[in-house]
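ok so i was messing around last nite and threw this chain in just to see what happens. nothing serious, just curious
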Amino acid sequence: MKTLFQLFKRRTRSGNYLPELDGLRFIAILLVVLFHSYVYFYPKPYPNNYTEVEGAQWISYFMAQGWFGVQVFFIISGFIITLPFAAHWIHGSRKPNIKNYLTRRFIRIEIPYFVALLLGFLILPHISSHSYQDLLPRLGASSLYAHSLIYSGELNPLLPPAWTLEIEIQFYLLAPLLALLFRISHPTLRRGTLLTLAVLSGFLPRLYTNTTMEWLDYTLAAHLPYFLLGMLMTELHLTMESPNKIGFDFIAIPLWLTLPLLLHTPSISFLVPTLLAVTMWMSMHGRALKHFLSRPWIAALGGMCYSIYLFHGAILELVKKHIVDQLIESKIEHSLHNLAPLILTAALVFLSAPLLYLCFEKPFMPKPRQK
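result:
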């Protein structure tokens, strides 16, 4: 069993592995898969105001907020991507080579991404009204991670979740520059600067809401707080001892349950990124939650999150149509009856993850640095 786990274990460039971080990736991809599974089995519009939710609609409500798993990914990226830069500026470790950094990011992200795009391009004309002629410009825009910019925030028909990867690429390009914030020598000032910038940048979307620039929602401008808070977590990781306190569990668990209620509360929405980062930090350092997140198969599935994210939409479509619908009848209503086919569909997505990971992701992961 241990050997099997090693086969699926995430490979890191530094060789330093944080299983609890992959556990958070599992939480993030689980939220996203449940949200998109929900779309198939429950009616629109999605219930957003919790004050109007009744009875079985609570299940619908919580699953309908699963989209914020994407923001969990953004915080994790802010943490991981800037870690070597922060280690250099704070502890004097080897300075990252920008060319090597960008090359590794390109190989790690681009090849599986392009495979998913190409499959969408080849298959979509046979199952939809799209033609190859219509899709070719979108394939070109997507290959440059510019679909949202060129098509004003439209979702990519070839790969609808790709808008988040475009935001990730924007952050990757800016990360070496943003990481200069770690040059601030005083720890309190450094943390305060990162936190202040994260909170202030959370107000950026209010400047263009209800204008012709709402497409900026699909760019880094709308999601910068999450990446900056990930950078703050990096700073704390490098400068503070790991507390691992049971008290963190009693705070983090209620916060995970409360966050979906706050996502649509305008008066405090600017605090959501900070609360999410606090929740994730405490989850990584709470005794019970860290133990749970570090379980081998939780961490392993979290390590496969990129493969799941790229292909889960297509798998959901195939699994629901050709397997689940043949076994269990679902009803388009806010009903507990729909939970069984929904859970079965989501479970089959995760069961397909190991094969996808071994074929499309692991071959392009960085090899550990020789010591």
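not much to say yet. Residues 2-93+160-364 form one domain.
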